[in-house]
Amino acid sequence: IFIYGPLATAGYLNDVQGGDVTGYAVRTTDESTIVHLTNFSWDLSAVSSGFLGATGVSTLSRWLIEHLHVESLQTSGNIFSWGAGAGANINMRDISLVNSSATPSTDAMIVFEALEAVSIDGLYVLRPNASTGHIIDAYDAQNVSIKNVYDATATNNHVFFSYVGATGPKNVTLENIYRITSTTGVTNSIRNTTYRITNSNMNWAAGAAASEIIFENITGNIDTANMTDIKLTHCTGTITDAGNFAGTLSGWRTAAPAAATSNGRKGQYAFSATSSMLYVCTATDTWKRVIINTW
């Protein structure tokens, strides 16, 4: 399906089933400004380029893709690939991506470059255990919102979210991002500024400088190296720092520190219900406490 040309200012495709193409199932150019795809079921062969390839995205492009299921046997390539478009908006809802190849692609399933806004709400992913390709690679996009994700792969040896390029995305919200709890998983990588990551059992780190980051309700591990201006609330995994920590790390720890020199960062606090103690971290690995009384 090729959406192209001066007349392709709007394209609407509904209730489509097909597959086994050698290129992309849907291909567009920069002259395609409004595209709505809904109720798709598509099979990709081992030699398919992917489901959607959008190169030279128009600054006026508006995409809505909803209720899509893709079964892939790809051994290389992305399922979705968007080129740069400074004013382009991508909106995806209720997406299911399954790769069952014996030699799965090591490329990311979803790739988007410098776009104005990206919204993904409702994403189910299943990949072979041997797959090391990322799920989402984000270039210099901004206003990125990814919510309600479940990675059902039994052995998660692939990254769910990673930045690409010299800058990375900014103004990013990642909410309700989960994998199968019985697996250890690998670490997701962020970069740039203004992240809010809430409700996730995955591991998180910054591959390069990242700032203004809020973590809430994270049960995975967080490596604060390369991060500044961090706030943690109800984060129960291991919080580590490779020595590049700067700024104030604040928020509740679930467990009270065992000793005055327990691991901690300035600004953290904890409460012990059994001893009625309130603990405050006043400097790196330095805790003080007070007894809380009724009155």
Silhouette: elongated
- What structural category arises from helix and sheet content? mainly beta
Given as residue ranges, the uncertain stretches (5+ residues, pLDDT < 50) are 242-248
Radius of gyration: 22 Å
Annotation keywords:
single chain; 295 residues; 16-stranded mixed β-sheet; 0% helix; elongated
Compact description:
The chain is mainly beta and 295 residues long. Helix content is 0%, strand content 58%. It is built from no helices and 23 strands.
Task: Please describe the topology of this protein.
Layout: E1 2-3, E2 10-19, E3 24-28, E4 34-44, E5 50-54, E6 62-72, E7 80-82, E8 85-99, E9 110-112, E10 115-126, E11 136-138, E12 142-151, E13 161-163, E14 170-179, E15 187-200, E16 203-218, E17 222-223, E18 227-235, E19 239-240, E20 246-252, E21 268-272, E22 277-283, E23 286-291
Parallel strand pairs: 1-3, 2-4, 3-5, 4-6, 5-7, 6-8, 7-9, 8-10, 9-11, 10-12, 11-13, 12-14, 14-15, 15-16, 16-17, 16-18, 17-19, 18-20, 20-21
Antiparallel strand pairs: 21-22, 22-23
Description of the structure:
With 295 residues, the chain is mainly β. The chain is built from no helices and 23 strands. The strands form two sheets. It has a 16-stranded mixed β-sheet that branches. It is elongated and about 70 Å long.
